[in-house]
Design brief:
The protein is of the alpha+beta class. The protein is built from 12 helices and 17 strands. Strands 5, 6, 7, 12, 13, 14 and 15 form a 7-stranded antiparallel beta sheet that branches. It has a 4-stranded mixed beta sheet with strand order 8-9-11-10. A two-stranded antiparallel ribbon has the order 1-2.
Length: 472
């Protein structure tokens, strides 16, 4: 494990993680991905296959990463948290004086997204951010968790969960090497990023840097809970909003299991506003009932509730009010609906993203599942990856988008690599700026490389948006 200078002394990552600034009472001890799932075990073969364009190899590797990170922390415990829950979080990585910033914006309203920048696709100019709905924090949440509310009325990030600004409950986790470098090199401070920019330097992250973004969905312990699921609901050429509110294809999750397979009518979405500020009507759907066994899931216990901060609880509560108009309480469930995993196992990074599907055995996103011994329903999810870095015959990268995560902010015609290669810092008055799109790099499917001319004057953060987005 590499060593980093932090707080004026030479210390190991493990010791850094035990220092007060990283303290999160109740977080399980860190567990790595078990070796049998291949993380950092096949880098050379993986790199050769990507250079040769053999995406079957990298897809099989991605499936193993996903299953490996979702293995139970406590084997044999049916309600165990997954391994990734033991990993350090962005709240720890970007804390200052033991506190994480209140200036972090929920992704739906972040300046990077709301500052509408035009991209070029198919000969047409399209906005990078789409005109999605807004999610006012329910008054019941403000009343019950007043210390979790920021001055602008939104909910703070918690120690465990990140405010995504909608029903999805986000977790941003990092490998110890990732958080160790962020802390050790001061990359959590904007002044350090500014110094790098002043010197014309970019960040080179550790080869064992891993970053994940995970999306949970609240499920009440009694009754049925709606979950919209993506069934290729829109054409890839559709450039307007494609968030889950508008999909119309829905399943009903039954924790008890009495009604599995039945078709039922149910309501979902409460207190949400359309883009123009008008009230969004509560959705009604006919949905087939599915059981919890088709999801990675966790039932929140009283012990879990004790370690969550007020902000964590407020994030859970606002999600449940928006979804089924009830407070989230101990005994309710969290089910996994989507997950990004980004690793530097190869020089050009691996980028893979997963989402739950009611038809997980159909179509190209189900391909290349390897044979492996893994607990849990990893085969109930679909996979897109953006490991190819050369353009296809049409001169563009293929579409690679997670409908749950990018659907609420981006057009469909996007690619994870095209986005992450842009990650970097520039001051507000810089002549050339980076972003999810920019005037100098307008094409969302272009096969960009870090040395492309459109990144001149940008201090790149080595595919990691989390650094410029969350540095204080």
């Amino acid at each position: 494990m590499p060593r980093f200078v932090y707080a004026g002394c030479l210390t190991s990552v493990a010791l850094c993680l035990s220092s007060p600034i990283f303290a999160q009472d109740g977080r399980p001890d860190f567990q790595p991905i078990p070796e049998r799932f291949g993380y950092f075990q096949e880098n050379e073969r993986l790199w050769e296959s990507i250079k040769e364009g053999d995406m079957g190899v990298s897809r099989a590797h991605a499936w193993r990463l996903f299953a490996g990170m979702n293995q139970p922390l406590e084997p044999g415990e049916p309600n165990s948290w997954p391994i990734w829950f033991s990993w350090p979080t962005s709240a720890q990585a970007f804390a200052v004086d033991g506190q994480h910033s209140e200036e972090v914006f929920a992704i739906r309203v972040s300046p990077q997204i709301q500052d509408i920048q035009v991209a070029r696709e198919g000969g047409a100019d399209i906005p990078v951010n789409t005109k999605g709905p807004t999610y006012p924090v329910p008054e019941a949440v403000k009343t019950r968790y007043p210390t979790a509310i920021k001055k602008d009325g939104s909910v703070k990030d918690g120690a465990f969960f990140v405010n995504n600004g909608d029903i999805m409950i986000a977790v941003e986790s990092l490998s110890p090497e990732g958080i160790g470098q962020i802390r050790g090199e001061g990359l959590y401070q904007k002044e350090v990023l500014q110094q790098l920019w002043d010197k014309g330097e970019s960040i080179d992250l550790d080869e064992r840097y891993v970053s994940t973004k995970h999306m949970y969905w609240p499920v009440k312990r009694g009754g049925l809970t709606a979950l919209p699921w993506w069934d290729n609901n829109y054409s890839p050429m559709y450039n307007d909003y494609v968030g889950y509110e508008n999909w119309g294809t829905v399943v009903a999750i039954d924790p008890v299991g009495d009604a599995i397979g039945e078709w039922v009518s149910l309501d979902y979405l409460y207190g949400i506003k359309n883009h123009d500020g008008s009230a969004m009507e509560t959705r009604q759907a006919t949905a087939q009932v599915v059981g919890l066994d088709r999801f990675y899931h966790h039932q929140v216990t009283d012990a879990d509730w004790e370690i969550f901060t007020e902000a964590d609880k407020a994030i859970l509560a606002q999600a449940s009010y928006w979804l089924y108009d009830e407070p989230f309480e101990p005994g309710d469930y969290l089910v996994e609906v989507a997950m990004h995993i980004v690793t530097k196992e190869v020089p050009t990074w691996t980028l893979q993203s997963f989402w739950w599907s009611a038809r997980s055995d159909e179509g190209p996103y189900s391909w290349d599942r390897p044979e492996m011994e893994a607990q849990g329903p990893w085969d109930q999810y679909l996979l897109t990856e953006a490991n190819a870095y050369d353009p296809g015959p049409d001169g563009e990268l293929p579409i690679a988008v997670n409908p749950y995560i990018e659907g609420v902010i981006h057009p469909i015609r996007t690619n994870c690599r095209n986005c992450h290669v842009r990650a970097g810092y520039t001051p507000k008055d810089a002549p050339n700026k980076t972003g999810y799109s920019s005037p100098n790099c307008p094409d969302l499917l272009a096969a960009l490389m870090p040395d492309d001319a459109c990144f001149v004057g940008v201090s790149l953060s080595d595919f990691a948006w989390i650094i410029p987005d969350r540095a204080q």
